[in-house]
Design goal:
By secondary structure, the chain is α+β, with helices and mostly antiparallel strands. It has 13 helices and 19 strands. A hairpin with a 5-residue loop joins strand 8 and strand 9. Helix 7 crosses helix 9 and helix 9 runs antiparallel to helix 11. The longest helix has 18 residues. The radius of gyration is 22 Å and the shape is globular. Bound molecules: flavin-adenine dinucleotide. The site of flavin-adenine dinucleotide has 35 residues, from strand 3, helix 4 and strand 10.
Length: about 450
């Protein structure tokens, strides 16, 4: 039913009678609707438009452009920086647009970008098919895919963008384009890794992968300098069917962990093996041999079980930094151990993702994600409790980051914080940046889509 929006101020009258709902500060569900994943981001949009279709999106884009509103685009709301909300502007909220059309015979699917990774993974699992997203089921398809997508299947099937074969995009001038290798190929190239800079991606067509057997789950090992270095080395030499995400952190008070382990430094690892049960056992053996596991819940099962239920009211407040590193040798493992040991943040983490495999076989100029040959991605983060605490944690994170990666600005855009222009350039090195700027200048010359890791058009 079209929303009755006669109460809207005159500058928002263009949003009258949309198919979706317009939520403004006068609505009782405003606070709930404006909330994003991270706590500490308390922006107050003039209107959040829960768009129902492409026409709604085009009308909000036009209203923002013509009335001079700042425009935010939201799918899952997990932006680390709060880019999917705005103070005083308009939010295109895609959560109602989450339709998934699967063609099991062709092994393709059209997915509306407001769907979550879990929603899509669950729908595909009924057909024994997968797309690799990230490590969180509640992340939106729109944000993770436009950024790149590095997750549990990255070594086996590549990044999320490596499975995208077409996209539909509403551009700043209101056109709704279907783009692929033949149609607007530059725009198609840019939306695979260039983030939300080029328009609102409304649907994505994915190539789907068969996954007849899967082994995965959490492996918890004691963290020592030796096990940290051993975990990194074993992840590098593992077959590419195995992708690992190792979180070096104090053990949280999980019900399956004995009380004496709570708070002790552990490697909480997500292990994901896309292949036969016997091959999984062989690939996992070197990890299990690093130390007596504190918990070992890695077992054959459906891939969707990698996404456990999440508490929708969970809104962490955290500061973090991301980087690529070439290796974690004994001295960097010692450094990680020492940094984690000396902080007293309730939660602090060094997260290690070993890359390679299928993602590295794609040419670095095939998509806007250019760092195909980097071996490892490391995120360091700490939770904070108050604004004063935030400064303490930020200083620790900054020192930790500089100690591990003193010189290199290169980054994966999906994990960038508010790190400044040099690091956005670092996400898009050399010719990638030049091409992105040219495409931005062609499709969004006034930088309407600027709430993102921004690639400004030519001035
Ligand atoms: C808990 C957590 C875990 C994560 N794990 C991983 C991981 O394992 N792997 C990984 O690669 N990343 C991961 N990320 C990073 C995540 O992919 C990015 O933060 C991503 O932008 C979130 O997407 P979203 O749709 O949920 O976010 P939103 O906040 O809704 O959107 C973020 C930005 O993406 C752009 N955007 C979103 N939707 C669209 C669209 N439809 N069209 C155009 N632009 C759009 C906009 O610029 C928007 O500001 C994680 C983030 C969190 C918070």
């Amino acid at each position: 039913m079209p929303s009755s929006t006669t109460r809207l101020p005159s500058s928002l009258q263009p949003l009258n009678n949309l198919a979706g709902r317009v939520v403004t500060p006068d609505d009782s569900n405003y606070d709930q609707t404006r909330a994003v994943f991270y706590g500490g981001i308390e922006k107050r949009p003039s209107a959040i438009v829960r768009v129902a279709n492409v026409d709604d999106i085009r009308r909000v884009v036009a209203a923002a452009r013509d009335e001079g509103y700042e425009l935010a685009v939201r799918s899952g709301g997990h932006s680390i920086v709060g880019h999917s909300t705005t103070d005083g502007g308009l939010v295109i909220d895609l959560r109602e647009m989450s339709k998934i059309d699967i063609d099991p015979t062709a092994r393709t699917a059209w997915v509306e970008t407001g769907a979550s990774a879990l929603h899509v993974t669950r729908a595909l699992s009924e057909h024994g098919l997968v797309i690799g997203f990230g490590d969180s089921g509640s992340v939106g398809v729109g944000g993770i895919t436009t950024g790149g997508g590095i997750g549990f299947l990255v070594r086996k099937f590549g990044m999320t963008i490596d499975s995208v074969i077409a996209a539909e995009v509403v551009t700043a001038d209101g056109r709704h384009l279907r783009v692929d290798d033949e149609h607007d190929p530059d725009l198609f190239w840019a939306v695979r890794g260039g983030g939300g800079n080029f328009g609102v991606v409304t649907r994505l067509k994915f190539r789907l992968h068969e996954l007849p057997r899967f082994t995965g789950g959490i492996l918890i090992l004691p963290a020592t300098p030796e096990t940290i270095a051993g975990f990194a080395a074993a992840s590098v030499s593992a077959p590419e069917e195995l992708s690992t995400i190792g979180n070096m952190m104090p053990a949280p008070p999980l019900p399956f962990l004995p009380a004496e382990v709570h708070g002790r430094l552990v490697i909480m690892a997500f292990m994901a093996f896309a292949g036969s049960d016997a091959a999984a056992e062989r690939a996992l053996a070197p990890f299990r041999a690093l130390a007596m596991p504190i918990a070992d819940m890695v077992k054959p099962g459906p891939y969707v079980s990698m996404y456990p239920p999440e508490d929708p009211s969970y809104r962490p407040t955290a500061v973090g930094r991301t980087m690529f590193v070439d290796s974690i040798d004994a001295s960097s493992a010692q450094l990680i151990y020492d940094y984690l040991s000396t902080s007293d943040a309730t939660m602090r983490v060094a997260q290690l993702r070993v890359l390679g495999g299928a993602m590295a076989r794609i040419s670095s100029d095939a998509t806007a994600y250019a760092h195909r040959s980097r071996t490892m991605l490391v995120n360091v983060a700490a939770f904070y409790q108050s604004e004063a605490d935030r400064e303490v944690r930020k200083t620790w994170v900054e020192r930790f980051f500089r100690a591990l990666q003193p010189t290199d600005d290169s980054a994966y855009v999906g994990f960038l914080n508010d790190d400044g222009q040099a690091r956005i350039r670092g996400a898009y090195p050399g010719a990638t940046w030049d091409r992105l700027v040219a495409i931005k200048s062609a499709y969004d010359p006034t930088n309407l889509f600027r709430l993102n890791q921004n690639i400004p058009p030519r001035g």
